[in-house]
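RECORD CONTENTS
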Amino acid sequence: MTWLSLPAHDRWLEAETDRLVSFGRAAALPTGGFGWLDEQGAVVVDRPAELWITCRMTHVFALASMMGRPGAAAFVDHGINALRTVFRDSEHGGWFASVNASGPVETDKGAYAHAFVILASASATAAGRPGARELLDEALAVATAHFWDEQAGMSVESWDRTFTTGENYRGVNANMHTVEAYLAAADVTGDRLWSDRAHRIVERVVHGFARGNGWRIPEHFDAAWNPLLNYNKDAPAHPFRPYGATIGHWLEWARLTLHLRAGLEARGEAAPEWMLADAAALFAAAIKEGWDVDGAPGFVYTIDWDGVPVVRERMHWVVCEGIAAAAALHTATGEDDYDRWYRLWWDYAAQYHLDLEGGSWWHELGTDNQVSRTVWAGKADLYHAVQATLIPRLPLAPALATALAAGLLR
């Protein structure tokens, strides 16, 4: 019997969900939104409230509320209220990247964080929270007006506050989270425009960029979508734009491809054959080039274009995405080998990443699998870890929030 079919394992996953959500309650800020948590679970007071953190925490609490966790709905409302007030740019539209008690700190408008506004508001809409649907409609309108490039079939990266001057850079990371957000929006609204756009992004990145580069996905591009393979070579450990190929994103793209595939099949459409094949290939490449490649267990963060590790720290979100991708591939194929990887990575996470004394997960480990802080300090949010506990217990479609609202949690 596989772990992925064991009711006892499902109970362990549920307990881990609750442990994580309990830890995150301290992140709510009296001034609005959610703060960055330190290793003890206290808000880091000298950091502003960040849009992406607030959105991800709102999404997590929306999921918790639909699992019947008392008190979670109030945290969803807290996040939605912040997105409708302190983060919202009422003059130019969109949302500020960060704010403090005095107002906006960073005023640029980025596709990455705006994708999470869509995700948070879609999940809160599924949870039936007041004001969420209006926020979702606004976020989708901003996405169409300012971030969607119809000709490229991709999202642009960022703008200044007034949406006048755009950055001459395009990034795969922002597009990856745009896919997740669009799939969630499609399920909540019933409008397939969003899943069609997600399909275009996935096909270009996975079946184009990834397959065309031996599965080492180029992350950084110029405005014409020409790859910038040496981008940030002098800042290889950048938390959002690291040099080289990012192993965890291969796993995340594999999973998102399977969610898209399942959504097509749920509508009675034949999914392209490349979707399952490419997802499996990305998964296999991540293992071959990222897992246990330098004499110690764990996924390295990045590799260069010859497959040599660059940043060797082990990020918690990477193993979370490995767990989720293994579960998704097992659901899609029924092959027991994916359950074997799933078990191995949970065992690894339990030994090294889970902090059973302080709470949550250690977000970064060194090559010795001891706590490290070179890229990520503290325990910023719950998004990846909570999803790793839910994806194994949910169908691949609809999206997480819609599936929970429909009572599909195993």
Notes: The chain is about 50% helix and 5% strand.
